[in-house]
Design a protein that fits this description.
By secondary structure, the chain is an alpha+beta fold. Helices cover 34% and strands 27% of the residues. Strands 8-10-7-11-9-12-13 form a 7-stranded mixed sheet, sandwiched between helices. The structure holds magnesium ion. Magnesium ion binds next to helix 2 and strand 8. The site of magnesium ion has 5 residues, from helix 2 and strand 8.
């Protein structure tokens, strides 16, 4: 299967300015500017865990595999450069079927790669008797010293989030837009971002990861969490706010960004709304460790981080 597939790949993958040498040699060569740091992230997706091939098809699985990596680059404030796509395709249904799956997978991810100017510069293709496995390594770049880490949040920083939360299992977990444009827009505005993470496992769980890395805590005002229509629809009663909020806090795979931003900067961002999607403040970072929730009455209660634990 490998040789015809390699031919197909060469015909279907466009050249890219940052890739001096792409698919076909022992390794790829990427051009690099000395003013930039290279950002590298890797994610492996497996049929039966991260997607159900039979339900979603190979194109959606391929798209998701690239999208989760682009989301991690966005969470670092980095611009995508290139991705390396390694796949293990099931040969239980024969060579021809395996080749079809491989082609569909790339047909699903290539438009996303083009949309975010991320070259497909290499990878590996294998077939075996197990289920489909897709491993993507994505390379990005960020001006030296401008990467957003998880560890820089400071007490008093506003907790800002992009987009909406909850109910991603309905469709968003396969069809989400990684927040690359938003990250690059904030970088181009020289926004002071102290820390960032993308929400892969749950808003409260990923927020607790920023807190752990930064040595601080966070207080959330639950009624300020922007809920997706899907999360709201989950709740049978119109006034079932608590259930909708629970989805927003813990569903995961929202692939939105959480940002720690100093108060003066947050005020400006919330007023100007420089992104194409809403930026919302849901609370602030605190000196005391741990997550807390503040009720409209002002009462403060502990908030247990919840979400998808690997
Ligand atoms: Mg991440």
């Amino acid at each position: 299967m490998e040789l015809p597939f390699l031919h197909w790949l060469r015909e279907n993958i466009p050249p890219a300015p940052n890739v001096a040498l792409g698919i076909g040699d022992d390794a790829a060569l990427l051009n690099q500017q000395s003013s930039q740091q290279t950002v590298v992230t890797s994610d492996m997706l497996m049929d039966g865990t991260d997607f159900i091939l039979q339900d979603c098809g190979a194109a959606a699985a391929g798209r998701k595999a690239l999208a989760v990596n682009l989301s991690d680059l966005a969470a670092m404030g980095a611009k995508p450069v290139a991705a390396f796509v390694s796949i293990a395709v099931s040969k239980r249904f024969g060579e021809e079927a395996a080749l079809t799956v491989a082609k569909q997978l790339f047909a699903g991810l290539l438009p996303l790669a083009a949309e975010f100017e991320c070259a497909i510069a290499g990878g590996d293709t294998n077939s075996w008797n197990g289920p489909l496995v897709i491993s993507v390594t994505a390379i990005g770049e960020v001006p030296v010293g401008r990467a957003w880490l998880r560890s820089g949040a400071q007490p008093g920083d506003a907790i800002l989030v992009t987009g909406t939360f909850g109910g991603s299992i309905k469709w968003k977990h396969l069809d989400f837009t990684p927040r690359v444009r938003e990250a690059l827009r904030l970088q181009s505005l020289a926004t002071e971002v102290h820390a960032a993470i993308d929400v892969s496992d749950g808003l409260s769980l990923d927020l607790s990861r920023i807190c752990a890395a930064s040595g601080c805590g966070a207080r959330v005002e639950l009624e300020r969490i922007p809920l997706s229509l899907e999360a709201v629809e989950y709740c049978k009663n119109e006034d079932d706010f608590a259930a909708a909020t629970e989805h927003g806090l813990s569903d995961g795979e929202d692939f939105e960004l959480i940002l720690a931003v100093p108060p003066h900067e947050a005020e400006r961002l919330l007023r100007d709304q420089p992104l194409d999607i809403p930026l919302t403040q849901i609370g602030w970072f605190t000196a005391e460790p741990g997550l807390t929730q503040q009720l409209p009455s002002g009462e403060v209660l502990p908030l247990q981080p919840r979400g998808y634990e690997h």
